[in-house]
Specification:
About 45% of the residues are buried. The N and C termini lie far apart (about 45 Å). This protein is about 50% helix and about 15% strand. Strand 8 and strand 9 (about 325-335) form a beta hairpin. The strands form 3 sheets. A 5-stranded parallel beta sheet has the order 2-1-3-4-7, sandwiched between helices. A two-stranded antiparallel sheet has the order 5-6. It has a two-stranded antiparallel sheet with strand order 8-9. The chain folds into 2 domains: about 1-155, Rossmann fold (3-Layer(aba) Sandwich), CATH 3.40.50; about 155-349, Dehydroquinate synthase-like - alpha domain (Dehydroquinate synthase-like, alpha domain, Up-down Bundle). The protein is of the alpha/beta class. The structure holds glycine.
Length: about 350
């Protein structure tokens, strides 16, 4: 497996062509993932750049460190940046590369399941700013995204499940057969070393990425159908923001999983989404992700976060909803009353 990764890195680097090579890691991927590539001849002269390893480091300071390292390392417009890490590294590295000398090439090697199925694909790059996530950034696609199953074995259950939530979303946007395949699988079994389970997950990752690529190809800059990828995220981001304010740690994918349940409830009441499928997803999420607890006194803050989601236009709260699995309805505007009904349902069930 490592051999396949090393072959694809060699092939991608020679196809990209460059005068100087830079590799961005965070402090964890430097320790855990970089050793798989470090002794490759093509990597021998790579100039390493390392930033801190959590989302709090997705800042202007880290960005400046990357720009300075590129400058001091003699990067030119023909240099190449390899981003080896999770979504924080691929987003920040992609933005640094897109803006250095008006843009140098970059390749993403996502090391988390979340980054493999979502962040590293589709050209969204950026950093957090002014207390808001991904506030500054540009759309710019990497030269290549190299998917390596080797890194999945480095992830704990929570990080596997976090990425899997985005895969559930892609299944919901695609078709019932895809969704049911996902609902019949538990990504944490790959940690037992079961080769068949690992292969199954790798195949499902490929299928998931294909759904995202198909949507992004149609609408790279999110004017229309790319908004489908926000399914579960309007409520999910509100959960993340509330949790952050309250000092509770919530992984992105967990918030998306809870957000999917909330928003599928809206799909049922507004768009006729089949109740049976809704309950199957709800049960899977309850069993694997547990529940996000909140009270009525949190409603104002939760709806406030939804209203201020940067994907809204004006005061209306925009959702992506489904009439059925694969039947996508973008720009569904919901009233505060409907949102509170959704929060009631989630809290009481
Ligand atoms: N994460 C959703 C998107 O890339 O559009």
């Amino acid at each position: 497996m490592v051999r396949e990764l090393r072959e694809s890195v060699t092939e991608a680097l020679s196809a990209a062509g460059f005068d100087r090579l830079f590799c961005l890691t965070d402090s964890t991927t430097l320790q855990v993932c970089w050793p798989l590539l470090a002794d490759m001849p093509v990597m021998r002269d790579a100039c390493m750049i390392t930033i801190g390893d959590t989302d709090e480091n997705k800042t202007t300071e880290s960005l400046m460190h990357v720009w300075e390292s590129l400058q001091h390392g003699g990067a030119t417009r023909h240099s190449l940046l390899v981003n080896l890490g999770g979504g924080m590294v691929t987003d920040l590295g992609g933005f640094a590369a897109s803006t250095f000398k008006r843009g140098i090439k970059f390749i993403n090697i996502p090391t988390t399941l979340l980054a493999q199925v979502d962040a590293s694909v589709g050209g969204k790059t950026g950093i957090n700013f002014g207390g808001l996530k991904n506030e500054i950034g540009v759309f710019n696609c990497s030269e290549r995204v190299l998917l390596a199953s080797d890194f999945l074995g480095t992830l704990d259950d929570r990080n596997l499940l976090s990425g899997y939530a985005e895969m559930l979303k892609h299944g919901l946007l695609d078709c019932r057969e895809h969704l049911y395949e996902l609902l019949a699988f538990d990504p944490t079994v790959v940690r037992s070393g079961d080769a068949a389970a690992r292969q199954g997950l790798v195949r499902m990752v490929g299928r998931s990425v294909a759904v995202k690529e198909r949507i992004v190809e149609e609408d790279p800059t999110e004017r229309g159908i790319r908004k489908a990828l926000n399914l579960g995220h309007t409520a999910g981001h509100a959960i993340e923001s509330l949790a952050m304010q309250e000092g509770r740690t919530v992984l992105h994918g967990y918030a998306v999983a809870w957000g999917l349940v909330m928003e599928l409830y809206l799909c049922v009441v507004r768009c006729g989404f089949p109740g049976v499928v809704f309950h199957q997803v709800e049960e899977y999420v309850r069993e694997h992700y547990g529940k996000f607890y909140f009270e009525c006194r949190h409603y104002d803050r939760l709806t406030g976060f939804m209203k201020h989601d940067k994907k809204n236009i004006g005061e209306a709260v925009n959702f992506t909803l489904l009439g059925d699995v694969g039947d996508i309805r973008i720009n569904e505007t919901c009233s505060v009353q409907e949102i509170e009904q959704m929060l009631d349902y989630y809290r009481e069930n």
